[in-house]
Amino acid sequence: MGRAFEKLTLADAVGRLRLGQRVLLPPGSAEPTAFIEELCRQAERLAPLTLMGGLLLGDYPFLKPEHARHFQWVTWQLMPPAVSAWERGRVRFVPARYFDAVRLFGRGGPWAPDAVIVHATPPDRHGYLSLGVSVSYPLPAAREAPLVIAQVNPRMPRTLGNAFLHRSQIDCWAEADSPLVEYPPSPLGSVEREIAARVARLIPDGATIQLGIGSIPQAIMEALGDKRALGVHSLLVDHMLPLIEKGVITNTRIGEVMGTRALFDFVHDNPLVRMEPSDIVHDPQVVGRIQDFISINSALEVDLSGQVNAESVGARQLAGIGGQFDFVLGASRAPGGASIIALPSTGKGGAVSRIVARLGDGAAVTTPRYLADWVVTEHGEARLTGLSVAERARALLGLADPKFRDELERSLATS
Fold this sequence. Notes:
- There is one protein chain.
- The chain is an alpha/beta fold.
- The chain has 2 domains: 6-175, Glutaconate Coenzyme A-transferase (3-Layer(aba) Sandwich), CATH 3.40.1080.10; 190-414, Glutaconate Coenzyme A-transferase, CATH 3.40.1080.
- It is built from 15 helices and 26 strands.
- It has an 8-stranded parallel β-sheet with strand order 1-11-8-6-2-3-4-5. A 7-stranded mixed β-sheet has the order 14-13-12-16-21-25-26, with helices on both faces. It has a 3-stranded mixed β-sheet with strand order 18-17-24, covered by helices on one side.
- Strand 13, helix 9 and strand 14 (249-258) form a beta-alpha-beta unit.
- The longest helix has 13 residues, at 402-414.
């Protein structure tokens, strides 16, 4: 028997929630800002309420001091506005890779939601609503949740592929005509462009590439203009548009669209953009069957054994595993596959080396040394696969900023 698909006001839709429940929110540019604002208005009635989800682009209003006793946030992906709340005990961080988050935060998982919020288009004439810019974990979770509430937004682009819920799968909905949360391009410098040029030389024509967010991925996309027949896997952002329009990118399999209105307009009803949820996009077995799959991710530091830390400074958690491990593992299995960790050689304005002798106390290992493949900085590139411990340390030394190499060399002699 189908669900009611009852039309409500936003206040009444939030009114369906009960104190003590777990509520899963969609991420990225699909962040349901109107719904979150109404949650905050009804905070006294709902307290305590557990909100859950991945990367949000907004300012996390439910974590403001006035809501300290109302809400807690459970996530596998910290963002800067949530870090201080995590340090105050307002956030519970779950160290999970993206592929596992679908199971952990789905039916039967330890964080199974009582309600799932989706941000969707109005239904078409057949009763189907597209989840637009985010299907990653919201879609599989909504298909099994006890309660599904839709924030229906006429500004949400109608994306195609595995992106739809039927009205019979939704309990209630409320209209909120509001702009999507945008993710603007990053400023680029000479270091990012040099890294990008080195990475671009490692990408063959016909490859399928996966990139994260930030200035280095943006620079890499801008450096790929002379490639042919590339595919994009997992994430679509603004700086991919020129390559699509030029015919460099010819196919996509996307879980998230994060960008500006220009990108949202481009993906609307566009058959080139094929959406898939994270139980497909992030599955290492699926990735491992893609010919010439190239995973490109960043890091905070890489030690001389090849261990990659992309999420913490010491024990201070700053981000999350995200999809890095999923895609690095998948690339290691893919025919002709490769994974690339691209990072500047220094941080804090050149004051510290990001090629380090060993990871610091409490630092997370996002990618273990046995899966580390290519590492690229502005000073060079090195493939670690198959190298001995001593050989990879020597290779990584060559990627460090020259002013730190003597110190790193001495650390090898004493280790």
